[in-house]
Design a protein that fits this description.
about 260 residues, alpha/beta, Stationary-phase Survival Protein Sure Homolog, Chain: A, two-stranded antiparallel sheet, about 20% helix, globular, SurE-like_sf, nucleotide binding, hydrolase, metal ion binding, 5'-nucleotidase SurE
């Protein structure tokens, strides 16, 4: 099985090294390819570099750094760097921080998985929630390293075909706890943290230039039960199947309307 690895934290990120170790539990190391951004691309979503060329450089026998977004990396791998040996599985992560609830809409980690599905491949986004119970560990990714290979195998066994032309992709979030405190894995819907949004704070430099800092909200607020963020805050790994179909099906008229 050939596995493509990517992320949005950059090719030198600690979480990508964790993912490379996880991938070696799933296949021979000679079948693992890494195509990841040269620099951090957090928050770019499903952005692609449509109006400019994308520079890339070889970093190892099967490793490349791409001066672009995570979705660019998937496109570069599928259509150029791995064109003669397309991946059987695309793994994006392990992200530094959660991509549950509304975070999924901004995530470059999810953007890579979405592009992988659009290109016709099984694609999984993997993220590690941080909090006071795991953030100060020597290895804050230890729960991901201990549990994600099994979660990936379970997703592979359950993976289904396209609906309406769209393959599913999968959003996996590991809870903010040590590895031995993970309570299990649950398949749940995407949630929404109440009253949590990105915001902007103005600032002025000593030279009186004006700036804004974009900041996120509280990641540990109470959320609806049976959702991804609620599962994570309860100690469970969440798996949320997704598709790129953005239609609000509940607003479409039904038969006879």
């Amino acid at each position: 099985m050939r596995i493509l690895l990517t992320n949005d934290d950059g090719i030198d990120a600690r979480g990508l090294a964790v993912l490379q170790t996880i991938a070696r539990e799933l296949t021979d190391y000679t079948h693992i390819y890494t195509v990841a951004p040269m620099s951090e691309q957090s928050g770019v979503g499903h952005c692609i570099s449509y109006t400019q060329p994308v520079r890339f450089e070889k970093r190892g026998a099967r490793d490349w750094a791409v001066d672009g977004s995570p979705a660019d990396c998937v496109i570069a791998a599928v259509h150029a760097l791995m064109a003669d040996k397309p991946p059987d599985l695309i793994l994006s992560g392990v992200n530094r921080g959660n991509n549950s609830a509304e975070n999924a809409l901004y995530s470059g980690t999810l953007g890579a998985a979405m592009e992988g599905a659009l290109q016709g491949h099984l694609a999984i986004a993997l993220s590690q929630y941080f909090g006071p119970r795991n953030g100060s560990l020597d290895d804050p990714f230890e729960a991901s390293a201990a549990h994600l290979a099994g979660v990936i195998e379970d997703i592979r066994a359950r993976h289904t075909g396209a609906v309406g032309g769209y393959l599913p992709f999968y959003n996996v979030n590991v809870p903010p706890v040590p590895a031995d405190e993970v309570t299990g894995t649950v398949w749940v819907r995407q949630g929404r943290r109440p009253d949590v949004n990105f915001s902007a704070t103005q600032a002025e430099s000593p030279s009186r230039r004006q700036f804004m800092w974009i900041g996120g909200g509280n990641q540990h607020v109470d959320v609806d039960a049976e959702t991804d963020a609620a599962a994570n805050l309860g100690g469970a790994i969440s798996v949320t199947p997704m598709r790129a179909d953005l239609t609000a099906h509940d607003l479409l008229p039904g038969d006879g309307e």
